[in-house]
Every structure is written in structure tokens, then in C-alpha cells.
Write a structure and sequence with these properties.
Layout (H helix, E strand, L loop, with lengths): L20 E14 L5 E9 L11 E8 L3 H13 L11 H8 L3 E10 L5 E10 L22
Antiparallel strand pairs: 1-2, 1-4, 2-3, 4-5
Length: 152
């Protein structure tokens, strides 16, 4: 039995940014932080879904920052939340609560390239729409684990 067979793996010669465009994505991480001015900020990471036929499957769109300081910023956050499936009357109790509820949500994102402070280009989400793809399907029956299966 082998661990890794070279002839069965397609070689990847480097990291490439996803092309600008729209992608089905999932929110893989969301955390609440504070800006330098000590205001709430939400930082969201997306992954381009691998269960949907599209380019750049599995690519990550990291460190998308959202603030709440003015109406335009709040409108962008509302757009994200609506695309993630939250109703207009949904109430989040805090930035932390919002972050927790966003993780795992599917949506469509627009991807653009932005130049960072270091001069490199980075992929960033530029708009948010509800997903048009089917949610990931569970493969096989649910796994049941009883107390007798646990080692402690």
C-alpha cells in the first residue's frame, strides 16, 4: 500500500489568483475584530466551491474586511447577509454573533483583484448574491457514533 503515487497526481506549478468574475462560494471563516479606531470589523474568508462545476475550485478569497461605521458600509454588510440567506428582519446581537452565523453559508461572490500594500495583487470579493447552485448534498447515510465507539 502506498501513501503517495506521483503518477496519480496532477502537478501544480504555483499559486494562481482566480480570474475576476462570479463564483459560487462558501464562507469558511468569519471573525469579529476591532479596527485601529476600536470600531467593530468583520473579517470573512471565502472558498470557491468544489462541488460546483466552475474554474478555480477550492481557491480561497481571504481577509475581506467589513466595517459598520457609515450607511454605505452597513449596506455592503446587508448585501452579504442577504446573499447568505438571512431575512431582512433578521437581528444579529453582535459582530461576534454575525460572524458565527455566517460560517458555512453558500452564496455567489464577485471576485476582483486589488493591489495590496506590499505591491502584490490579491483576490477580493466585490459583490454578493444568493447562491444559484444546489447546496452540497450529503453522501451516504448519517454516521451514528455511540458511547461504545468512543475511546474515553
Amino acid at each position: 500500500m502506498s501513501f503517495f503515487k506521483m503518477e496519480e497526481v496532477e502537478e501544480v506549478k504555483g499559486f494562481q489568483l482566480p480570474k475576476p468574475g462570479k463564483y459560487e462560494a462558501v464562507i469558511i471563516n468569519a471573525v469579529s475584530k476591532l479596527t485601529q479606531a476600536k470600531k467593530d470589523m468583520l473579517v470573512v474568508d471565502f472558498e470557491i466551491r468544489s462541488d460546483v462545476p466552475q474554474e478555480s475550485q477550492g481557491a480561497k478569497i481571504l481577509y475581506n474586511n467589513f466595517t459598520f461605521e457609515h450607511p454605505t458600509a452597513q449596506g455592503i454588510v446587508k448585501s452579504l447577509c442577504k446573499a447568505a440567506g438571512f431575512a431582512n428582519n433578521h437581528v444579529f446581537t453582535s459582530c461576534e454573533d454575525m460572524a458565527k452565523q455566517l460560517i458555512g453559508k453558500n452564496l455567489e461572490i464577485g471576485v476582483k483583484h486589488e493591489k495590496g500594500n506590499d505591491g502584490n495583487n490579491y483576490a477580493k470579493a466585490s459583490y454578493y448574491n444568493p447562491s444559484t447552485a444546489n447546496p452540497p448534498a450529503q453522501v451516504g447515510p448519517a454516521i451514528q457514533i455511540g458511547d461504545e465507539d468512543l475511546p474515553f
